[in-house]
Design brief:
The chain is of the alpha+beta class and 552 residues long. The chain has a domain of 213 residues: Dipeptide-binding Protein, domain 3 (Roll). The chain has 16 helices and 19 strands. Helix 10 packs antiparallel against helix 12, helix 11 packs antiparallel against helix 13 and helix 15 packs antiparallel against helix 16. The radius of gyration is 23 Å and the shape is globular. The N terminus is likely disordered.
């Protein structure tokens, strides 16, 4: 029997307690192969745990979302930081987006056609699509948007060296020419919600040549950017002239209907405050629910929970350019010392939501493999000490930075540092606010280690974060052998060959300690029972609000 929900307004007044990442994907072999001709939108698949709608969908109301993190930048083209996907996906759209099976499907594109073995891609656009300023989207807007993304986006910058030119070859046709054949990797690169190539008016692109300095926020999405109060809230308003796709709803693409009048995202870093707001009805949906609250919320009248998949990888990133962690022997010492079992238990206390797994690809992915996983979860203190001795380590500080309001980061960092100390390292956790954390991880003189979360739909999706530019050139990982594998992955269209290349990439990541895979977690979302989610999108990836309506 569920308990009755009690108001917690007073708790909201008294409570004050102290994640970035990428959507994961399962991709079947048939879904990932490049077709001989056009790539058309696939039919929508059945959705998990869709909310039953006893009455037909209706418009109206304000949807209040308790969001776990604020913006470091509003420029989705220039960042992999959350909450860009959760918020901006309602405002901007891209050429492709994730389908229900997490393959890339056309969104603003009608089709994407490779020729000359993948050296030329012709993108046929939907006609009649309107921007929020009521201007029709044409090839000139798409050309300008793609060219800007290639200059300012982490994923765009990784692709840029392969691009010869982007041309508007018709009112609704754009042609991308590459210096070598480019296979299926192009599709998720353009549509990945971790750094999406969103389409905006040419005039906005021309006025905003620099990253993080947008002149306006104008998209083609179902909701318009209306108001932003930094660290407080974001208000979006329904775009009544929105032009949707006609095909069936398909997660991030397909038919989208903006049912609610407005969406208000409240920035609430403290999980206890988000929970209290959900129970009191102040918030209709909340993100990043602590796993230890799962049972409690499930027994609360008026509240529903969802287990969000595919699994999200928790990983450690290093400063590869300066300081102690630029020495591979130090990184090997860290790799040898860590007990992933203990770290994951600290990060994700409920075993139902954590998974020890050494692959750099989630269990749901067709690229999941066991290559070099003998280097995962070593928990070998003596081996770690051997590496430290070989490196000439002499007790210098080794720092691990976390966002103070991110509970998973704090618990993870505390566990990691405790284990490094057992191996004789002078390790410590440095706690920052979000903006300082972002700045410090780009600073070669400040960063040593940090952890984050996410995963990738395709092995090529790792390239933007391991090509020497992320999180900055002062700290990023760059390696000629790894680059060679990425080049082969990008050109290859045969699925089985790409699977073998994914194993090669994983082996190099382990041998060079490019990063440290801690394990996987399933996130939890929660919402009020009057929130109608007919496609079950709340159980998928990053928060997606397509076709949600309020039954109240």
């Amino acid at each position: 029997m569920k308990k009755t929900t009690l108001s917690r307004k007073e708790f909201l007044k008294l409570t004050s307690v102290a994640t970035a990442g990428a959507v994961a994907a399962a991709c079947a072999p048939a879904a990932t192969a490049i077709p001989a001709a056009a790539i058309q939108a696939p039919a929508a698949t059945s959705a998990p745990e869709a909310t039953a709608a006893p009455v037909g969908p209706r418009k109206g109301g304000v949807l209040n979302v308790g969001l776990h993190i604020g913006f470091a930048t509003l420029d989705w083209q220039a960042t992999v930081q959350h909450p860009a996907p959760q918020v901006q996906s309602n405002v901007w759209e891209g050429l492709t987006g994730y389908a229900t099976d997490f393959t890339a499907a056309p969104e603003l594109a009608e089709s994407l056609v490779p020729t000359e073995g993948g050296k030329v891609w012709t993108i046929n656009l939907r006609s009649g699509v309107l921007f929020h300023n009521l201007k029709e989207m044409t090839a000139e807007d798409v050309k300008a948007s793609v060219e800007r993304w290639l200059k300012v986006g982490p994923k765009g910058l990784a692709l840029a060296p392969q691009v010869v030119e982007v041309n508007a070859t018709g009112k609704y046709e754009v042609t991308m020419t590459f210096n070598a054949p480019l296979g299926q990797a192009l599709l998720p690169l353009l549509g990945s919600d971790e750094n999406k190539c969103v389409i905006m008016p040419k005039e906005v692109c021309d006025a905003s040549p620099e990253a993080n300095k947008l002149s306006e926020i104008i998209g083609t999405g179902p909701y318009k950017w209306t108001e932003y109060k930094e660290d407080q809230y974001i208000l979006l308003t329904r775009f009544d002239e929105y032009v949707s796709r006609a095909d069936a709803p398909n997660y991030q693409t397909g038919k989208k209907v903006p049912y609610v009048d407005q969406i208000k995202f409240w920035i609430v870093p403290e999980s206890a405050t988000r929970l209290a707001g959900l129970e009191s009805g102040e918030y209709d949906i909340i993100t990043e629910v602590p796993t230890n609250e799962y049972a409690n919320l499930n027994s609360t009248d008026g509240i529903k929970t969802v287990k969000i998949g595919p699994a999200d990888n928790l990983y450690i990133m290093f400063n590869h350019q300066k300081g102690l962690t630029s020495n591979i022997l130090i990184r090997k010492a860290i790799q040898a010392a860590l007990n992933a079992d203990e770290i994951m238990a600290a990060a994700v206390p409920d075993p139902e939501f954590r998974l020890l797994n050494g692959s750099f690809f989630p269990p749901e992915s067709a690229y999941h493999n066991a290559a070099s996983t003998e280097l995962y979860n070593m928990n070998d203190i003596e081996k770690s000490k051997e590496y430290l001795k070989e490196a000439g380590y002499n007790g210098e500080p080794i720092t691990y930075q976390v966002i103070g309001t991110n509970e998973v980061q704090v618990r993870t960092g505390t566990a990691v540092v405790s284990q490094l100390k057992k191996a004789g390292m002078n390790a410590e956790v440095l706690t920052y606010d979000l903006q300082t954390w972002v700045a410090k991880r780009r600073d070669g003189n400040a960063l040593m280690m940090y952890n984050s979360g996410g995963n990738w739909i395709d092995p090529s999706m790792y390239q933007p974060e391991f090509n020497g530019t992320f999180p900055s050139k002062e700290t990023g990982f760059k390696d000629a052998e790894v680059d060679k594998v990425f080049d082969a992955l990008n050109a290859e269209t045969d699925f089985e060959k790409r699977k073998m290349l994914a194993q090669d990439l994983q082996t190099l990541f382990y041998s060079k300690v490019a990063t440290y895979n801690i394990g996987y977690r399933y996130k939890i979302g929660a919402y009020r029972d009057y929130v109608m989610d007919p496609e079950g999108n709340l159980a998928r990836g990053n928060l997606t609000l397509n076709n949600i309506w309020l039954d109240k």
